[in-house]
Design goal:
Blueprint (H helix, E strand, L loop, with lengths): L6 E4 L4 H12 L5 E5 L7 E2 L2 E2 L1 E2 L2 H4 L6 E4 L3 H13 L3 E4 L15 H4 L9 E3 L5 H15 L1 E10 L6 H8 L20 H14 L6 E7 L6 E9 L5 H9 L4 E3 L5 H4 L5 E9 L5 E8 L3 H8 L1
Parallel strand pairs: 1-2, 1-6, 2-5, 6-7, 7-8, 9-10, 12-13
Antiparallel strand pairs: 3-4, 9-11, 11-14, 13-14
Helix pairs in contact: 1-10, 5-7
């Protein structure tokens, strides 16, 4: 049976927007409209004519659901208007993630929170999503005392233009371009991961330290994770717990290439961290465009 809903994909021509459209097609949604900037308006996108994303168009009251994959400033302008027009807005930018009253949702972790909305639901950062999926089962089993994470983020996280730039570069030409704001202490990206993980897991005082780097990979983020639990939890027990967790697939060594196109977070190399009490170390990878953005929102 075909799903019927008046759905808008805003930012449809971008890296995440194109994946969002593909996932909606896979799931049988036929009543879908594509929106983007004035520059892309009128273009044909897999049989859909791209409409300009304006306040008037999105706030007209003829949409049930808006999936936003645009920048923070555009979301701040357009999301409230669409919500006021009666649409449920799921926003993938950082504009509303930490606002009180706006649920920040990872379905496998806190899916029940989605109902506590006033027209806006926030989609977390593409690293916070897989991180929370891996941490939640450990929290539920043994509690969490401290989390340290190093992320290795593909260029697709910086958008389609960054992907095109990497494709056109030789190895000799490539340099590491950081697209995050650095305030002398940490990248804005690192602060987001800490704050969002605390909100998703509902552990507002959890110590979370993140180190983020961009790597020359087209699609797929990887994360090295060190966790201290409140109660002892062996690597074997942690493996059993994660192996039964929704959204997790255990593998020997997770890689972005293996994760590409998958709906699960790949988790592996689970071992005891002997340097701290109740310490665990593990490695994960996921498709940041699919699992880390579009699929989570859908």
């Amino acid at each position: 049976m075909t799903n019927r809903a008046r759905v808008a994909v805003v930012g449809a021509t971008g890296a995440v927007g194109s994946v969002t459209l593909a996932l909606l097609r896979e799931r049988g949604y036929g009543d879908v409209r594509a929106f983007a900037s004035a520059r892309s308006a009128g273009a044909n996108l897999d049989g859909l004519t791209v409409e300009e994303a304006t306040p008037d168009a999105l706030g007209a009251g003829d949409l049930d659901l808006c999936l936003f994959s645009v920048g923070t400033s555009a979301s701040r302008e357009l999301v409230p208007v669409a919500a006021a027009g009666g649409a449920l807005c799921i926003d993938k930018s950082s504009a509303f993630r930490l606002e009180n009253g706006v649920p920040l949702v990872v379905p496998e972790v806190n899916g029940d929170r989605v109902h506590e909305n006033a027209g806006i639901v926030a989609n977390p950062n593409c690293c916070s999503i897989p991180l929370s999926i891996a941490l939640a089962p450990l929290r539920d089993t043994a509690g969490l005392r401290r989390v340290r994470v190093a992320t290795y983020q593909s260029v697709s996280g910086a958008g389609a233009s960054a992907m095109d730039r990497l494709r056109g570069e030789s190895v000799e030409e490539h340099d590491l371009r950081m697209d995050w704001d650095f305030d002398g202490v940490e990248f804005d990206e690192e602060a987001k991961i800490r704050a969002e993980t605390r909100k998703i897991l509902e552990l507002p005082d959890l110590p979370v330290s993140a180190m983020c780097v961009r790597v020359p990979v087209l699609v797929g983020h990887a994360e090295a994770l060190w966790v201290e639990t409140e109660a002892p939890l062996s690597a074997e027990e942690a493996t059993d717990v994660l192996g039964e967790a929704e959204g997790v697939r255990l593998v020997g060594f997770p890689s972005p290439l293996e994760a590409a196109g998958l709906d699960d977070v790949l988790v592996g190399r689970i071992r005891t961290d002997e340097t701290v009490e109740n310490g665990l170390a593990l490695f994960l990878a996921c498709d940041n465009l699919r699992k880390g953005a579009a699929l989570n929102a859908i």
